[in-house]
Design goal:
- 37% of the residues are buried.
- Strands 7, 8, 9, 10, 13 and 14 form a 6-stranded antiparallel β-sheet that branches. This protein has a 5-stranded antiparallel β-sheet with strand order 6-18-15-11-12. It has a 3-stranded mixed β-sheet with strand order 3-4-5.
- A hairpin with a 2-residue loop joins strand 4 and strand 5.
- The protein folds into 2 domains: 141 residues, CBS-domain, CATH 3.10.580.10; 229 residues, PPM-type phosphatase domain (Phosphatase 2c, domain 1, 4-Layer Sandwich).
- It is an alpha+beta fold.
- The chain has 11 helices and 18 strands.
- Helix content is 37%, strand content 24%.
Length: 410
Protein backbone atom coordinates (compact mmCIF):
# COMPACT_ATOMS: atom_id res chain seq x y z
CA UNK A 1 0.00 0.00 0.00
CA UNK A 2 1.79 3.22 -1.12
CA UNK A 3 2.48 5.87 1.46
CA UNK A 4 0.51 9.08 1.04
CA UNK A 5 2.37 12.37 1.58
CA UNK A 6 0.37 15.16 3.14
CA UNK A 7 1.57 18.77 3.21
CA UNK A 8 0.02 21.94 4.53
CA UNK A 9 0.08 23.51 1.08
CA UNK A 10 -2.51 20.93 0.05
CA UNK A 11 -4.99 22.30 2.58
CA UNK A 12 -5.14 25.93 1.43
CA UNK A 13 -4.76 27.22 4.99
CA UNK A 14 -6.17 30.62 4.04
CA UNK A 15 -9.49 28.82 3.51
CA UNK A 16 -9.49 26.35 6.40
CA UNK A 17 -7.29 24.71 8.98
CA UNK A 18 -6.16 21.11 8.41
CA UNK A 19 -7.89 18.41 10.41
CA UNK A 20 -7.57 14.68 11.10
CA UNK A 21 -9.66 14.06 7.98
CA UNK A 22 -6.74 15.24 5.86
CA UNK A 23 -4.60 12.44 7.30
CA UNK A 24 -7.23 9.71 6.90
CA UNK A 25 -6.00 6.76 4.85
CA UNK A 26 -8.40 3.98 3.83
CA UNK A 27 -6.90 0.64 4.87
CA UNK A 28 -8.11 -2.94 5.31
CA UNK A 29 -9.59 -3.75 8.69
CA UNK A 30 -10.28 -6.88 10.69
CA UNK A 31 -13.23 -8.07 12.73
CA UNK A 32 -12.96 -9.95 16.04
CA UNK A 33 -14.14 -13.09 14.25
CA UNK A 34 -11.16 -13.12 11.92
CA UNK A 35 -8.04 -15.06 12.90
CA UNK A 36 -4.39 -14.22 13.31
CA UNK A 37 -3.74 -16.26 10.17
CA UNK A 38 -5.84 -13.70 8.31
CA UNK A 39 -3.89 -10.86 9.96
CA UNK A 40 -0.62 -12.40 8.75
CA UNK A 41 -2.06 -12.69 5.26
CA UNK A 42 -3.16 -9.06 5.19
CA UNK A 43 0.23 -7.83 6.42
CA UNK A 44 1.88 -9.94 3.71
CA UNK A 45 -0.33 -8.38 1.05
CA UNK A 46 0.15 -4.80 2.29
CA UNK A 47 3.81 -4.45 3.14
CA UNK A 48 3.53 -0.71 3.87
CA UNK A 49 0.74 -1.21 6.37
CA UNK A 50 2.02 -0.13 9.79
CA UNK A 51 -1.05 -1.06 11.82
CA UNK A 52 -4.25 -2.95 11.15
CA UNK A 53 -7.47 -1.70 12.75
CA UNK A 54 -10.00 -4.06 14.28
CA UNK A 55 -13.64 -3.08 13.90
CA UNK A 56 -16.75 -4.52 15.48
CA UNK A 57 -19.75 -3.47 13.49
CA UNK A 58 -18.73 0.04 12.53
CA UNK A 59 -17.00 0.76 15.82
CA UNK A 60 -13.19 0.58 16.06
CA UNK A 61 -12.08 -1.48 19.05
CA UNK A 62 -8.34 -1.88 18.59
CA UNK A 63 -5.20 -1.65 16.52
CA UNK A 64 -2.70 -4.38 15.65
CA UNK A 65 0.87 -3.12 15.26
CA UNK A 66 2.69 -4.87 12.44
CA UNK A 67 6.09 -5.18 14.11
CA UNK A 68 4.68 -6.33 17.46
CA UNK A 69 2.40 -8.86 15.78
CA UNK A 70 5.14 -10.36 13.58
CA UNK A 71 7.62 -10.58 16.46
CA UNK A 72 5.07 -12.40 18.61
CA UNK A 73 3.67 -14.73 15.98
CA UNK A 74 7.16 -15.74 14.78
CA UNK A 75 8.11 -17.21 18.16
CA UNK A 76 8.19 -21.01 18.36
CA UNK A 77 4.74 -22.64 18.41
CA UNK A 78 2.96 -19.24 18.48
CA UNK A 79 1.41 -19.83 15.06
CA UNK A 80 0.20 -23.26 16.08
CA UNK A 81 -1.24 -21.83 19.31
CA UNK A 82 -2.72 -18.55 18.07
CA UNK A 83 -3.03 -18.87 14.29
CA UNK A 84 -6.70 -19.88 14.34
CA UNK A 85 -7.63 -17.72 17.32
CA UNK A 86 -9.23 -14.28 17.16
CA UNK A 87 -7.03 -11.42 16.02
CA UNK A 88 -7.77 -9.56 19.24
CA UNK A 89 -5.09 -11.68 20.96
CA UNK A 90 -2.35 -9.27 19.78
CA UNK A 91 -4.50 -6.15 19.55
CA UNK A 92 -3.91 -2.92 21.41
CA UNK A 93 -7.27 -2.44 23.07
CA UNK A 94 -6.71 1.27 23.81
CA UNK A 95 -5.50 2.89 20.61
CA UNK A 96 -5.84 6.60 19.96
CA UNK A 97 -9.20 7.19 18.29
CA UNK A 98 -10.06 10.67 16.96
CA UNK A 99 -12.88 12.21 15.00
CA UNK A 100 -12.12 13.31 11.44
CA UNK A 101 -13.21 16.86 12.32
CA UNK A 102 -10.55 17.24 15.04
CA UNK A 103 -8.09 20.01 14.12
CA UNK A 104 -4.40 19.23 13.84
CA UNK A 105 -3.43 21.19 16.95
CA UNK A 106 -5.87 19.24 19.13
CA UNK A 107 -4.79 15.99 17.45
CA UNK A 108 -1.15 16.77 18.22
CA UNK A 109 -1.91 17.26 21.91
CA UNK A 110 -3.90 14.00 21.93
CA UNK A 111 -1.00 12.17 20.28
CA UNK A 112 1.46 13.53 22.85
CA UNK A 113 -0.84 12.49 25.69
CA UNK A 114 -1.18 9.02 24.19
CA UNK A 115 2.57 8.55 24.06
CA UNK A 116 4.96 6.95 21.59
CA UNK A 117 2.47 4.42 20.27
CA UNK A 118 0.46 7.20 18.60
CA UNK A 119 3.52 7.92 16.46
CA UNK A 120 4.67 4.35 15.94
CA UNK A 121 1.27 2.65 15.54
CA UNK A 122 -0.67 5.59 14.18
CA UNK A 123 -4.25 6.28 15.20
CA UNK A 124 -7.79 5.43 14.15
CA UNK A 125 -9.97 8.10 12.54
CA UNK A 126 -13.76 7.98 12.75
CA UNK A 127 -16.66 9.91 11.29
CA UNK A 128 -19.57 10.24 13.70
CA UNK A 129 -18.02 7.42 15.72
CA UNK A 130 -17.79 5.01 12.78
CA UNK A 131 -14.51 3.72 11.40
CA UNK A 132 -13.17 5.83 8.50
CA UNK A 133 -9.47 4.97 8.27
CA UNK A 134 -6.14 5.42 10.00
CA UNK A 135 -3.68 8.25 10.45
CA UNK A 136 0.07 7.90 10.29
CA UNK A 137 2.32 9.39 12.98
CA UNK A 138 4.92 10.43 10.42
CA UNK A 139 2.29 12.23 8.36
CA UNK A 140 1.13 14.05 11.48
CA UNK A 141 4.67 15.23 12.18
CA UNK A 142 5.02 16.42 8.58
CA UNK A 143 1.84 18.45 8.76
CA UNK A 144 2.78 19.95 12.13
CA UNK A 145 6.22 20.88 10.77
CA UNK A 146 4.64 22.40 7.67
CA UNK A 147 2.16 24.38 9.80
CA UNK A 148 5.01 25.64 11.98
CA UNK A 149 7.01 26.66 8.92
CA UNK A 150 4.00 28.52 7.50
CA UNK A 151 3.43 30.18 10.87
CA UNK A 152 7.08 31.22 11.06
CA UNK A 153 6.93 32.63 7.53
CA UNK A 154 3.87 34.64 8.47
CA UNK A 155 5.61 36.02 11.56
CA UNK A 156 8.72 36.83 9.54
CA UNK A 157 6.69 38.65 6.90
CA UNK A 158 4.94 40.61 9.65
CA UNK A 159 8.27 41.58 11.25
CA UNK A 160 9.70 42.55 7.87
CA UNK A 161 6.75 44.84 7.29
CA UNK A 162 7.14 46.19 10.83
CA UNK A 163 10.70 47.09 9.81
CA UNK A 164 9.30 49.14 6.93
CA UNK A 165 7.05 50.98 9.38
CA UNK A 166 9.88 51.54 11.87
CA UNK A 167 12.18 52.91 9.19
CA UNK A 168 9.38 55.14 7.93
CA UNK A 169 9.05 56.69 11.40
CA UNK A 170 12.77 57.52 11.29
CA UNK A 171 12.75 58.91 7.76
CA UNK A 172 11.71 62.46 8.68
CA UNK A 173 14.59 62.69 11.18
CA UNK A 174 17.02 61.59 8.47
CA UNK A 175 15.72 64.41 6.27
CA UNK A 176 16.13 66.94 9.07
CA UNK A 177 19.71 65.81 9.72
CA UNK A 178 20.59 66.06 6.02
CA UNK A 179 19.28 69.62 6.02
CA UNK A 180 20.82 70.98 9.23
CA UNK A 181 24.14 69.11 9.11
CA UNK A 182 24.82 67.60 5.67
CA UNK A 183 28.26 66.21 6.60
CA UNK A 184 27.01 64.36 9.69
CA UNK A 185 26.92 60.58 9.58
CA UNK A 186 24.57 58.16 11.32
CA UNK A 187 24.78 54.38 11.72
CA UNK A 188 21.58 52.53 12.70
CA UNK A 189 21.76 48.74 12.62
CA UNK A 190 19.13 46.70 14.48
CA UNK A 191 20.45 43.38 15.74
CA UNK A 192 17.31 41.76 14.38
CA UNK A 193 14.97 42.88 11.60
CA UNK A 194 13.51 45.54 13.86
CA UNK A 195 15.25 47.06 16.86
CA UNK A 196 15.04 48.93 20.12
CA UNK A 197 17.28 51.86 19.14
CA UNK A 198 15.93 55.04 17.61
CA UNK A 199 17.06 58.57 16.81
CA UNK A 200 15.36 61.93 16.39
CA UNK A 201 16.42 65.24 14.90
CA UNK A 202 14.50 68.51 15.02
CA UNK A 203 15.39 71.81 13.35
CA UNK A 204 14.43 74.94 15.28
CA UNK A 205 15.30 78.62 15.00
CA UNK A 206 18.99 79.08 15.67
CA UNK A 207 19.89 75.43 16.05
CA UNK A 208 18.93 71.79 15.98
CA UNK A 209 18.16 69.03 18.45
CA UNK A 210 19.40 65.41 18.36
CA UNK A 211 18.63 62.26 20.30
CA UNK A 212 20.16 58.81 20.12
CA UNK A 213 18.23 56.39 22.33
CA UNK A 214 18.29 52.74 23.34
CA UNK A 215 14.98 51.27 24.53
CA UNK A 216 14.59 48.15 26.62
CA UNK A 217 15.15 44.98 24.62
CA UNK A 218 15.63 44.44 20.92
CA UNK A 219 13.64 42.81 18.18
CA UNK A 220 9.85 43.20 18.34
CA UNK A 221 9.59 44.20 22.05
CA UNK A 222 12.31 46.80 21.58
CA UNK A 223 10.60 48.13 18.46
CA UNK A 224 7.33 48.56 20.37
CA UNK A 225 9.21 50.56 23.00
CA UNK A 226 10.75 52.81 20.33
CA UNK A 227 7.25 53.73 19.15
CA UNK A 228 6.23 54.65 22.71
CA UNK A 229 9.42 56.55 23.56
CA UNK A 230 9.81 58.26 20.20
CA UNK A 231 6.21 59.49 20.12
CA UNK A 232 6.56 60.72 23.72
CA UNK A 233 9.74 62.62 22.83
CA UNK A 234 8.20 64.10 19.70
CA UNK A 235 5.22 65.33 21.70
CA UNK A 236 7.54 66.81 24.37
CA UNK A 237 9.49 68.72 21.73
CA UNK A 238 6.28 70.09 20.24
CA UNK A 239 5.07 71.23 23.66
CA UNK A 240 8.28 72.53 25.25
CA UNK A 241 10.65 73.24 22.38
CA UNK A 242 14.07 71.69 21.88
CA UNK A 243 16.49 73.93 23.79
CA UNK A 244 16.27 72.11 27.15
CA UNK A 245 17.27 68.43 26.73
CA UNK A 246 17.05 67.71 30.46
CA UNK A 247 13.44 68.92 30.59
CA UNK A 248 12.59 66.76 27.58
CA UNK A 249 14.03 63.65 29.26
CA UNK A 250 11.95 64.43 32.35
CA UNK A 251 8.80 64.82 30.27
CA UNK A 252 9.41 61.53 28.42
CA UNK A 253 10.08 59.83 31.75
CA UNK A 254 6.69 60.92 33.08
CA UNK A 255 4.97 59.91 29.86
CA UNK A 256 6.50 56.41 29.76
CA UNK A 257 5.75 55.79 33.42
CA UNK A 258 2.13 56.79 32.96
CA UNK A 259 1.70 54.69 29.82
CA UNK A 260 3.34 51.57 31.33
CA UNK A 261 1.81 51.76 34.80
CA UNK A 262 5.00 52.79 36.61
CA UNK A 263 4.05 55.22 39.37
CA UNK A 264 7.02 56.64 41.26
CA UNK A 265 8.43 53.14 41.58
CA UNK A 266 5.72 52.40 44.15
CA UNK A 267 3.33 50.37 42.01
CA UNK A 268 3.39 46.83 43.35
CA UNK A 269 2.31 45.36 40.01
CA UNK A 270 3.62 47.59 37.23
CA UNK A 271 2.65 46.63 33.72
CA UNK A 272 6.32 46.61 32.69
CA UNK A 273 9.72 47.65 33.96
CA UNK A 274 10.82 49.20 30.67
CA UNK A 275 12.22 52.48 29.48
CA UNK A 276 15.14 53.93 27.56
CA UNK A 277 18.68 55.26 27.81
CA UNK A 278 19.32 58.37 25.78
CA UNK A 279 21.83 61.02 24.79
CA UNK A 280 20.13 64.33 23.89
CA UNK A 281 21.62 67.65 22.90
CA UNK A 282 20.71 71.04 21.51
CA UNK A 283 23.32 72.63 19.23
CA UNK A 284 23.61 76.22 17.97
CA UNK A 285 26.04 76.24 15.01
CA UNK A 286 26.48 80.02 14.91
CA UNK A 287 28.11 80.19 18.33
CA UNK A 288 29.19 76.57 18.88
CA UNK A 289 26.99 76.19 21.96
CA UNK A 290 25.95 72.64 22.78
CA UNK A 291 23.63 71.68 25.65
CA UNK A 292 23.75 67.98 26.58
CA UNK A 293 21.65 65.80 28.87
CA UNK A 294 22.16 62.05 29.12
CA UNK A 295 20.39 59.13 30.69
CA UNK A 296 23.08 56.45 31.04
CA UNK A 297 24.64 57.40 27.69
CA UNK A 298 27.67 59.60 27.07
CA UNK A 299 28.79 62.34 24.69
CA UNK A 300 32.33 62.28 23.25
CA UNK A 301 33.95 65.52 22.12
CA UNK A 302 37.33 66.06 20.44
CA UNK A 303 38.24 69.73 20.03
CA UNK A 304 40.73 70.84 17.33
CA UNK A 305 44.34 70.34 18.40
CA UNK A 306 43.37 68.51 21.62
CA UNK A 307 45.36 65.42 22.58
CA UNK A 308 42.48 63.82 24.49
CA UNK A 309 38.80 63.14 23.95
CA UNK A 310 36.41 64.56 26.53
CA UNK A 311 33.74 62.12 27.67
CA UNK A 312 30.66 63.75 29.20
CA UNK A 313 28.76 61.01 30.97
CA UNK A 314 25.02 61.00 31.29
CA UNK A 315 23.36 60.58 34.66
CA UNK A 316 23.03 57.04 35.95
CA UNK A 317 19.26 56.97 35.75
CA UNK A 318 17.20 55.56 32.91
CA UNK A 319 14.10 57.18 31.46
CA UNK A 320 11.03 55.26 32.56
CA UNK A 321 11.61 52.03 34.55
CA UNK A 322 10.07 51.32 37.94
CA UNK A 323 13.07 52.61 39.93
CA UNK A 324 13.09 56.03 38.24
CA UNK A 325 11.17 58.61 40.27
CA UNK A 326 8.22 60.20 38.51
CA UNK A 327 9.67 63.66 39.10
CA UNK A 328 13.35 62.78 38.56
CA UNK A 329 15.26 65.77 37.14
CA UNK A 330 18.10 65.37 34.66
CA UNK A 331 20.70 68.14 34.38
CA UNK A 332 22.01 69.95 31.35
CA UNK A 333 25.72 70.30 30.65
CA UNK A 334 26.66 73.27 28.47
CA UNK A 335 29.72 73.10 26.21
CA UNK A 336 31.45 75.68 24.04
CA UNK A 337 32.72 73.95 20.90
CA UNK A 338 35.11 75.74 18.56
CA UNK A 339 34.69 75.15 14.83
CA UNK A 340 36.08 71.80 13.72
CA UNK A 341 35.22 69.96 16.94
CA UNK A 342 34.25 66.31 16.50
CA UNK A 343 31.14 65.12 18.39
CA UNK A 344 30.25 61.44 18.76
CA UNK A 345 27.35 59.72 20.56
CA UNK A 346 26.47 56.04 20.69
CA UNK A 347 24.10 53.57 22.31
CA UNK A 348 25.60 50.78 24.39
CA UNK A 349 25.44 48.35 21.47
CA UNK A 350 28.90 49.63 20.55
CA UNK A 351 30.32 50.02 24.06
CA UNK A 352 29.13 46.67 25.43
CA UNK A 353 29.89 44.43 22.45
CA UNK A 354 32.01 41.51 23.62
CA UNK A 355 35.05 40.50 21.60
CA UNK A 356 38.82 40.34 21.44
CA UNK A 357 41.06 37.59 22.75
CA UNK A 358 39.61 37.81 26.27
CA UNK A 359 35.95 38.22 25.24
CA UNK A 360 35.53 41.57 26.99
CA UNK A 361 33.50 44.67 26.10
CA UNK A 362 34.63 47.06 23.36
CA UNK A 363 34.47 49.87 25.93
CA UNK A 364 34.72 53.64 25.90
CA UNK A 365 38.52 53.70 25.88
CA UNK A 366 38.64 52.19 22.38
CA UNK A 367 36.09 54.72 21.20
CA UNK A 368 38.28 57.58 22.45
CA UNK A 369 41.38 56.02 20.87
CA UNK A 370 39.63 55.69 17.50
CA UNK A 371 38.37 59.27 17.62
CA UNK A 372 41.93 60.48 18.27
CA UNK A 373 43.29 58.28 15.51
CA UNK A 374 40.79 59.72 13.01
CA UNK A 375 40.73 63.25 14.40
CA UNK A 376 41.02 64.79 10.93
CA UNK A 377 38.62 62.45 9.18
CA UNK A 378 35.11 63.27 8.05
CA UNK A 379 32.23 62.03 10.21
CA UNK A 380 31.55 59.32 7.63
CA UNK A 381 35.20 58.21 7.76
CA UNK A 382 35.11 58.18 11.56
CA UNK A 383 31.98 56.02 11.58
CA UNK A 384 33.41 53.64 8.97
CA UNK A 385 36.54 53.23 11.08
CA UNK A 386 34.40 52.66 14.19
CA UNK A 387 32.27 50.05 12.37
CA UNK A 388 35.35 48.26 11.03
CA UNK A 389 37.00 48.23 14.45
CA UNK A 390 33.85 46.84 16.03
CA UNK A 391 33.62 44.09 13.41
CA UNK A 392 37.24 43.08 13.98
CA UNK A 393 36.73 43.19 17.74
CA UNK A 394 33.52 41.17 17.63
CA UNK A 395 35.04 38.43 15.49
CA UNK A 396 32.98 35.25 15.90
CA UNK A 397 31.16 36.52 18.98
CA UNK A 398 27.39 36.86 18.87
CA UNK A 399 26.03 40.36 18.22
CA UNK A 400 24.68 41.45 21.60
CA UNK A 401 22.48 44.42 20.87
CA UNK A 402 21.22 46.97 18.39
CA UNK A 403 23.84 49.42 17.15
CA UNK A 404 23.36 53.16 16.71
CA UNK A 405 26.02 55.89 16.67
CA UNK A 406 26.18 59.40 15.32
CA UNK A 407 29.07 61.70 14.45
CA UNK A 408 29.27 65.29 13.25
CA UNK A 409 31.79 68.10 13.10
CA UNK A 410 30.97 71.64 14.24
Amino acid sequence: MPETSVYLSDFRPHLRQPSAADLCLPVPCMTPEETNEKVLEVFAQHRDLVSLPVVEGAQPIGLINRNIFLSQISKPFRMELYGRKSCIAFMDKEPLVVEASMDIEALTFKAVECGEKALSDGFIITRDGQFAGVGNGLQLMRVVADMQAAHNRQILHSIEYASVIQQATLHSSREVLARVCPVADLVWEPRDIVGGDFYQFHAKDGGWFATVADCTGHGVPGAFMTLIASSSLDQAVRQHGARDPAALLAQVNRSIKQMLGQVDGQDGTPASDDGMDAACFWFEPACGRLVFAGARLSLFVLRPGADAVDSIDGQRKGVGYVDSAFDFAWHNVELALPPGSLVFVTTDGLVDQVGGARAIAFGKRRIRELLLEHAHGTPAEVNRAMRAALGAWQGTQHRRDDLTFFCFRT
